[in-house]
Amino acid sequence: MTPPTRPEGLPDEFWDAGTGVKQDALLKAYTDLRTAADAKPEGVPESPADYELVIPEAYENAEQIREQLDGDSPFLEKARAFLHERGVSQEAFNELFAGYLTDRLGDPAAIEQRKADEATKLGEKSEDRVNAVAAWLNGAVGAKHYEVLRPFITSADAVEALEALQEATKDRVVPTPKPTPPDPHAGETPNQRHARALYGS
Q1: pTM for the complete prediction?
Q2: pLDDT of residue 191
Q3: N or C terminus: fewer CB in 10 A for the chain?
Q4: What whole-number distance in Å separates Cα of residue 54 and Cα of residue 130?
């Protein structure tokens, strides 16, 4: 009987000199390898959309940044899908996303230091002064415009400028706007408007 020929490169654990290839052992090793390859790595979210965006509080309007990126960022959507397909964990995603934010918005540690430096310039009551001008600005321009201007109140110079503006306008009476008179032609149909334009009314 011709002895079996050992396939080139076959490991010892899958070869028997008398019977040849250990098929059961080889099949089990393949099954174990396939199971390990198909298993989801630890820390990977269930779906690309489940990657959580961690926005450092150092950034102004952190919650608004999160909502904007979550709802309107084709780049982030593609990045999530790409990373999820390759089994990237939430922790690794956080590191990549932190680098992205630093590139776009600046280093959060440097931002925190800058805030501390500006607070020092305003003195012991820096927080009270910032809150006071913020409340005044909100009342002066309304919530909608305040949200646009609020991120600019980040320096001692800005706070002092707003305090000066508040002081300069504190005795000024803001006129009450006159109500808009009712439109006598409200509710007209297009035909009625056309007739009025031709023949007057």
Answers
A1: 0.45
A2: 66
A3: N
A4: 26
